[in-house]
Amino acid sequence: xxxxxxxxxxxxxGREYTxxxxxxxxxxxxxxxxxxxxxxxxxxxxxxxxxxxAGQFVLAVGSPFGLQSSVTIGHVSALNRPGQVFDxxxxxxxxxxxxxxxxxxxxxGNSGGPLLNIDGEVIGVNSTINTLTGGSAGIGxxxxxxxxxxxxxxxxxxxxxxRGFLGIEFDQDLKPxxxxxxxxx
Length: 185
What we know:
single chain; 185 residues; mainly beta; 3-stranded antiparallel β-sheet
């Protein structure tokens, strides 16, 4: 929905709705809320991030390359991944923090789809793939559910997302010996 003010939302049974897009105007938060006027729609529960562990099975749902309702399977490769990921849409780089790394294929078109645990809970929103080929021969990343909830709640309440700014960049976590040397508990 990037860059759109309105989109058409089509449900599995063919109903169409006009949706208003409220996007986080932040390149580090690749999220948006699409508001539609409807009732009786089912939702998926958000999973608890504290229960997500490396090695657990996941499903990535999306529409890669325009193929509707595609599901891939994989596992959580790692948690809390930072890094710079090439964005083929803008031909530039985006910096991410706290991402879920997965080997479930996240191809172009999977972005915005859910990353589900085996209980059907949303543990992340598929965001990007770090690839040299442009396809699934790379590492997929999803925005964690706890980040999604914070951003979505603010977008729903205020129709915008404001981020605090400190003017510093965190490069890495400090190791226990570094904390001890600096006298930091």
